[in-house]
Amino acid sequence: MTASEWIRRPRPRPGARARVFCVPHAGAGPSYFAHWVSELPEDVELCLVHLPGRESRLADLPLDDITAIAQRVGRACADLLDLPFVLLGHSMGALVAYETARRLAVPPRRLFVSACPPAHRLVEEPPVAHLPDDEFLAEVRRAYQGIPDEVWNDSALMRMMLPAMRADFAAYETYEWVRRTPLGCPVTVLGGSADTLVPTGSLAGWAELTEGDCEVEVFDGGHFYLTEHRHEVQRMVTAALGTDAAPDPAVAGTGPNREAGA
């Protein structure tokens, strides 16, 4: 395992003063954050967690255990913690970011958890990872509304995405929170006002998992509110890092997301 396999740095910045590590949702690869590459300040380096079984790691066996994933992500980013940094994870990626933060020798400036109930109070949904392919995909599309028509109708693409999606959902469904010392870093909890999977009333529970401050921010939208509101989130990330520059909301429009899940 090398850091370059697990952590993609699409635009290395030798003069960077800070880093942002982003973890995508179930079934997704680093391209979910592709727009962020050009939209973050010039002094911030974007580091994208690239789990096996998707995009350029399609041939790698996906993992179905959150703890195992977090251990590997933590080891992969260990040499990149020489600058101030934040961790941001969306949906299942928020669990990975949280478990990674618990294992790092250097704490992040702030942990951003998006569209995810508190790790110790996960909402128990009927498991779907074990279902036959057609039923599994139909349940994912129904519940998360995260598979665009152009992807759903591309049978070859769906076949390629299926192993990673199934492994990610299995990882989420089998995750068991283990009581440890609370995080020492502050946490910002992000959610969508119309997210039926993660009620906004549950978000404040993340405060019980950190000794730092905990802020909750709710945006208009559903489970994938982040696609439309990424510029606001980028400004929050930049503020947490304390950099001088601010992302330009006029740079790069929102493009279609070709991977989706929890």
If you had to describe this structure to a student in words, what would you say it looks like?
The chain is α/β, with parallel strands linked by helices. It has one domain (3-241): Rossmann fold, CATH 3.40.50.1820. Helix content is 31%, strand content 14%. The protein has helices at 3-6, 36-39, 66-76, 92-103, 133-144, 149-152, 155-173, 225-228, 230-241, and strands at residues 7-8, 18-23, 44-49, 85-90, 110-114, 187-192, 214-219. Helix 4 (92-103) links the parallel strand 4 (85-90) and strand 5 (110-114). The protein is globular. The two termini are 26 Å apart. 42% of the residues are buried. GO terms for molecular function: hydrolase activity. InterPro entries: AB_hydrolase_fold, TEII, Thioesterase.
The gist of it:
The protein is of the alpha/beta class. It has helices spanning 3-6, 36-39, 66-76, 92-103, 133-144, 149-152, 155-173, 225-228, 230-241; strands at residues 7-8, 18-23, 44-49, 85-90, 110-114, 187-192, 214-219.
